[in-house]
Amino acid sequence: MVGFTRGFSGRGRSGRDPRLPPGQYDAGRSWPVLTAEATPKLDTAAWTFTVEGLVQTPSTWTWEEIRALPGSDYEGDIHCVTTWSKLGMTFRGVSLDVLLDAAVPLPAATHVMAYTHTGYTTNLPLADVTGGQAWVAWEAEGKSLPREHGGPARLLVPHLYFWKSAKWVAGLRLLDHDEPGFWEQNGYHDRGDPWLEQRYQGD
Ligand SMILES: Nc1nc2c(c(=O)[nH]1)N[C@H]1C(S)=C(S)[C@@H](COP(=O)(O)O)O[C@H]1N2
Ligand SMILES: [Mo]
User: Fold this and answer.
1) 167 in ligand 1 pocket by Cβ < 6 Å?
2) Which domains, ranges and CATH numbers included, belong to the chain?
3) Ligand 1 within 6 A of 36 CB?
């Protein structure tokens, strides 16, 4: 007479949370900080976000302007290549769809290089940052994004490993080809799908 409630715990038969991609563990309440550069102190009065490169209308938003755009939420999980995941996170920001719709990608655009106010970069196929899959996020867990987690705003691309979610994001450059960003030049996988365990080049 035991075992009937197992399915209600949200765990798989193995006891593993089915939201965890292969090779990942649940970090629980802790949210590790992973930063290659020094954490900047960015003033929102001088902060901007730009969409440029292969677009019809290169566009820059100030902090006030981007905050005035229609916001949306992400509720779900994030996965770091160093094997921690955090389940059931909440972020708020603006969908990249809204920003890209304003700038209008040219037909030749296939990839984006996300760049930051600190010099960190990461590359993504345009198809991974459209269709409701990516945000410029300024809130996490109902609070302003902490500085060490990329505040005032970071990129959020939660279906890929978290190194793609550039902290202190400053803009997107649309390209007609792929180009490796900071970690991609240093051995990380070009795309980084956690469900396919695309951790390193060659995975
Ligand atoms: N600017 C910048 N963004 C970055 C990084 C970084 O070093 N610099 N690290 C990436 C990596 S490897 C991860 S796992 C996440 C970590 O975000 P967190 O510190 O908020 O957990 O940010 C990503 N974005
Ligand atoms: Mo990471």
Assistant:
1) yes
2) 70-196 (3.90.420.10)
3) yes
